[in-house]
Amino acid sequence: MPRYQKPQDITVGVVGYGGAFNMGKHHLTEMQRAGMTPLAVTELDPERLKVAQTDFPGIETYRTVDEMLKKSRVGLVTMITPHNTHADLAIRCLNAGRHAVCEKPLAITTAECDRMLAAATKKKLLLSTYHNRHWDGSIMRAVKAIRSGAIGDVVRIEAHMGGYGKPGDWWRSSKSISGGILYDWGVHLLEYSLQILDDDITEVTGFAKTGFWAPKTKWKKDGNEDEGFAVVRFKKGTWLTLCITSIDSNPKRGMIEITGTKGTYWYDYGNWELTQHRDGEVVVTKGKNPESEGWRFYQNVADHLVKGTPLVITTEWARRPIHILDLAGQSAKKGASLKPKYR
Hints:
Distance between the termini: 26 Å
Number of strands: 14
CATH class of the largest domain: Alpha Beta
CATH topology of the largest domain: Dihydrodipicolinate Reductase, domain 2
Number of domains: 2
Structural class: alpha/beta
CATH superfamily of the largest domain: Dihydrodipicolinate Reductase, domain 2
Order of helices and strands: EHEHEHEHEHEHEHHEEEEEEEHH
């Protein structure tokens, strides 16, 4: 992969500058913080292009990706678009000789991830996913505590999120666009869990409840599942469960709970709690999580392109949670557990 002389030489752009969460500005600002140079924005909405020009005076603006790739010298492009568009857009950028980053999830299916990886490999270009939450204070503290032996040997991880309520009428509640209920937040929870369970996947089982909320949304038959549930087995005998739900009347506390032979550790974004067994006594300690260091994602990308620093969120790493979600969806339809293609 060709090296840049300095971070400022890396010209960057985004596809998507929509108003939801203002992620276009966020990404370009994080790239700029890492020393890279914002150059281009592609967005269908002309009003949002005006916002981009206000946020980044002088930035190039385009209505289509093809126009940007033809006219701009942008070197790295981040896709901030609905999930089902990631694969096509990233491959077009890669084929045009540009490095590519996708907002999470990388794609919806394993096959899409494979095609994206093949395009990046052929062109010898970077392809990554914006897993900035890899550096959340909550998971970094959890990994440190567990690796220190705080709960003994890890037995299982339970990852969960949700509550009771009708999903919003936007593309994230459409299964064909989003991938399903497990994808939006589930990919984060899986990425956290895979940092802790450093082991090969041996089997995935999926379950789904459908039909309650979907008819009441604009998506009707294309609405997400009411609840998605996955069980992942690992080679060393540990297992992971993931549940994302919109029908849970009594949601569990926290997002991640890790059970070990000597204790349990759970956390949400703000808090952590450790329960340990010491000499016949139960000892509970708790506290606040450190702040996120999500800026390290683009810093690592810049260091990789300039210094050759190993890329943390590789395509293969980003494919792992997608492979699990893909298998869980197939398993739920078939009513049977499935073996993975990738471990």
